[in-house]
């Protein structure tokens, strides 16, 4: 398994719409293994393939308690069905928007159809943190980041901050 570089806003690749996977083969499994390793290394609970620059509709997640046994989840070509009209609010962050957090409102439960690590079709009824996390990750497949739900001004401030961090160079006096 290889730890990959996680792309951060304002990298334009993050805005690409990811493409469905035709089959879960060896290449996809290697990708999922690398994604999981990268996610754990960055202390995240979810990662979409596009966040490491691969525009495939693949997500990995692990929302289990850090101190306990790891419970990785793999979602290939996920489709959301039956979103609840009730909403829940979580303070969200994102590995592609480092050190920035905001309260985001999303449907509190949803059903997800997807292929698992072995390419088998599955349906998951998600609620709580799991429902929020899967919706956040699925936004990545459409090129959407959580900051897109914020006001223009708030979003601009975050993007500006991130751009500054990126352009930071060492100052030398000679
Ligand atoms: Zn994210």
Task: State the main characteristics.
26% helix; two-stranded antiparallel ribbon; 7 strands; 174 residues; single chain; 3 helices; binds zinc ion; alpha+beta; Peptide Deformylase; 5-stranded antiparallel β-sheet
Structural features, described:
26% of the residues lie in helices and 28% in strands. The chain is α+β, with helices and mostly antiparallel strands and 174 residues long. The protein has one domain (12-167): Alpha-Beta Complex (Peptide Deformylase). The strands form 2 sheets. It has a 5-stranded antiparallel β-sheet with strand order 1-2-3-6-7. It has a two-stranded antiparallel ribbon with strand order 4-5. Bound molecules: zinc ion (ZN).
Shape: globular
Question: What share of residues is helical?
Answer: 25-40%
SSE string, helices as H and strands as E: HEEEEEEEHH
Read across the widest sheet, the strand sequence of neighbours is 1-2-3-6-7
CATH architecture: Alpha-Beta Complex
